Amino acid sequence: MKYCLLIFLFFTICSCQKTNQITASLIFESEPSNFPTQDKLDVNYKSFQVLNDTLIVFDKFNHEIIFFDLISQSISSKSQDLNGPNGFDSPINFTFLDNSNYVLADDYSIAVFDKNGIKTKEFNLFDESLYIDRDKLYGNPAYLGYRNNLISGINGESIFLYFQKKGKEKNKNNFAELNLYNGKIEAISIDYPSNYEEIEFTGRLFQLTSAQSDKGIYFLFSGSPEISFFDFNTKKTISKSIISFEGKSIADPPISFDANDSEYYEYIRSNPFYTQIIYDDLHKLIYRISSPSIGNSQALDNNIFNKREIILTVLDENLNELGNLNLGTNRYDGTFAFSYSKGIWLALHRELQNDENYIKGDLIKIEGIHY
Question: Which SUPFAM superfamilies match (predicted)?
């Protein structure tokens, strides 16, 4: 299935010190792409990572790391000790620093492992002696359950910690960097988008999602159209508000934890959401997945998540918007998607995942880009 959009993608091609600008129509192809589960894979992953065309997930039920080759569709796994000197009980997130060393995180600690699963270091995030400037950070403890996987610094030498706003706090930093060599934690000059400044965080918080390049971190919060980039070298952040659909573009303040189901579903229906950001290392592009608010004609129930319109926004590394693709409604899960050498893969929503032998999805390709 092809979609030709009335938008343009500008490529800058440098050759012999001469710059040419080529304008081409964005054409997308979409085709079914289903992955065999082989009794190991599932569709319910909040944390996942793609390295060298391999999807990596952590199976917390069987306590193992699963490696799925996206090209050959072969699967392998690595068991993770629960107890003992190399044990780690309840990971909520992870990242591979390279092809062998990896990091696991739970609600209060971070541990580093080598390729054989040997724990080489562990840091207790409640140890105040590790913090260089704790007073510069928001008051909540470090939160590591963000999408898609843990953020690591240059050459895998550090892990970025996220500190959620507490109450009416403002003008503090919500990121800190944990040095994996000396264990020190230092605040980084990154704050929330401007529309978050006056919000009191006392309820269900906006979700953070991030993507990483070799130059820095791209991140967004689910209630704001603002995309930010933190540069590893300059330690500076640039932000741009990217509006990809008509109507309401900023979500209302978070609702209370005490809200009932009806109130929660109404909040979901009446607000836009920005659910994922993806970095395409091969083509040096950024993809953002977002959804406008839903009209009042939709019933207020759990299926409201599946009825959202999905917009795929394409940007360059400098956050210049190159185009949008409307992927329609009632098809995709806007939180499980990634880029690899064959294109952009999006999972179908849970109601369409009706075969336990496969994770169903679509592969999307931008014509004019070599896959």
Answer: NHL repeat (SSF101898)
32/349 Cα distance (integer angstroms): 13
**Residue burial 133-147, b: 16+ Cβ < 10 Å; e: rest:** eeebbbebebbbebb
Task: Return the bridge partners of 270, or none.
Answer: none
Give the sheet arrangement for strand 109-113, strand by strand: 93-96, 102-105, 109-113, 119-124
Distances (CA, A) of 160 to 106, 151, 237: 14, 5, 14
Given a contact cutoff of 8 angstroms between Cβ atoms, the answer to whether 224 and 250 are in contact is: yes
**In the chain, where does DSSP find H-type helix?**
261-270
Sign of CA dihedral 179, 182, 184, 189: negative
Q: Tell if the pTM clears 0.85, that is, is over it.
A: yes
Residue 67 pairs in a beta bridge with 56, 76
Which amino acid is residue 280, in one-letter code? D
Cβ(103)–Cβ(111) under 8 Å?
yes
* CB-side neighbour CA atoms (13 Å) of 73: 9
Residue 141 tokens, joined = 């403890």
Phi, psi values for residue 129, rounded to 5°:
-70, -15
Contact (CB, 8 A) for 293 and 270: yes
The length of the chain in residues reads 371
pLDDT in tens, the chain (371 residues): 544 443 333 333 233 333 232 223 367 889 999 999 998 888 777 789 999 999 999 888 888 999 999 999 999 999 999 889 999 988 899 999 986 899 999 989 999 999 999 999 999 999 999 999 999 999 889 988 777 889 998 888 999 999 888 777 888 888 999 999 999 999 998 878 877 777 776 655 567 889 999 999 999 988 899 999 999 999 999 999 999 998 999 998 877 777 788 888 888 888 999 999 999 999 999 999 999 998 775 666 666 677 789 999 999 999 999 888 889 888 998 889 999 999 999 999 988 999 999 999 999 998 777 88
Asked whether the CA dihedral 114, 116, 120, 125 is positive or negative, the reply is positive
